[in-house]
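User: Sequence for Putative NAD(P)H nitroreductase below. Tokens please.
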Amino acid sequence: MDLLTGIESRTSASKLTAPGPKREDLERIIAAGVRAPDHGRLRPWRFVVLEGDSRKVLADAMANLLLAKMPGATPDQLEAERNKPMRAPTIVVVAAHPTKGKIPEIEQILAVGAAAQNMMLAAHGLGYGSMWKTGGAAYDPSVKQALGLAAEDHIVALLYLGTLAAAGPLIPAPTDGVVRWL
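Assistant: Structure tokens for Putative NAD(P)H nitroreductase:
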């Protein structure tokens, strides 16, 4: 598939099943991520790969966060929260590790967002489905700590990766109303 066809046909996949990307494919997906534009060549990205039982680290952190925010959470609610990371066989936590200096932090975070997009396109090109997730867990210090990230890091994406269970609809992406030509 050529690059533009890949970009134009990529869609978020809410239903992912095993198998997730093979190790060599996952390495290629991450390698595509680090090709993102990076002002100052700071390499502000960090990746945490969760597969199999290691997804439970995120699952437990998410359930603990729910319990902290909602002390009356029922066992069913906690179980539902724990099951969220189990919706995909592989999750890559994509985080920004900003460096203080002349490059503004926002530019470093945007570079990491571009890395996440490159990774989704690479996954699509290799025949895998992906979904970019965040939610409250992505912004919570206890979740970052559970994943071994630094306090100053920012989780930009929880990339859910796997085999498409069913192809989602390709939603039109019109440019009408979002472009102004001068």
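Residues 32 and 118 are 6 Å apart (CA to CA).
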